[in-house]
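call fold(seq) -> tokens
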Amino acid sequence: MVAIASAQASQTARARRRKKLQRLLFYTLLVLVAVVLTVPVIWLLITSLKKDVEYLSYPITFLPAVPQWKNYVQVFDPKFHFLKHAGMTVFLAVTYSTLCVLSSALSGFAFARFPDVKASRRLFGIVVAMIIIPGIVTIIPQFMIFSKMRLTGTYWPWVLWGLAGSPFHIFLFRQFFLSFPKELEDAAEVDGCSPFSIFWRIFLPNAQPVIATSFILNFVAVWGDWFTPMIYLRSDNTTLAVLINNVFRNPAGNLITTLTVAGTVVYILPMVLIFFLGQRYILKGVVTSGLAGR
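ret:
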């Protein structure tokens, strides 16, 4: 009995040591990943406080001799039109996000509550399949269509994209609406509500987590997009991402790197703020959208 107890105690001790080692390796890996992800951000912040001469000097200096806080003041110089294009970007992102949320929610409601409609399941299968299609595949045919419609150089492509909805967000809304009890819908029908009234008065007001998730993801996607505005818009109505890449130049036409980096820091702050304020909605929306499915 003593030998058995001793063997069990030895196995327990080995299991504890193994568990501690696994935990140590896990946290070490997390720290390494955090360092890898944090270093570029730190470099960005430090570079934004340097003079352009310091940035180009060799050997490389890590810290600026005197922090150049005026770089952030110069970013908002009227000659760079930073605030003007920031307002345009906000308008474009809000417009697209609002339209995409409404159209995706309506489509998700139809797929969730009318599954017996002819070809409904097949159409939803096509929508899900479109999630895996890269956007770069459709950029050329879409540009040709909008060009022939004389809509390039305007915000109308984003309006039409928003009205068309997003396959991924249609999927999110559909999965969320599937979790709604059928009794709510039946009671509303008894009261004389039409399908659209049921959607607008019952389903949409109770879909706040998915609405917030969809709006935030769409807003960040438009705010952070450089490629699409570069192709579709003119220099006078383009977004902030394109402006930052081109506008901060000296009289000789050379890029002022430190100003560009300072503008980039200001540019990413709204996305960071939106993420921290909306992360609980994103998590809740994604989790609750997976509660039901068929």
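The chain has two domains: 2-47, 70-288.
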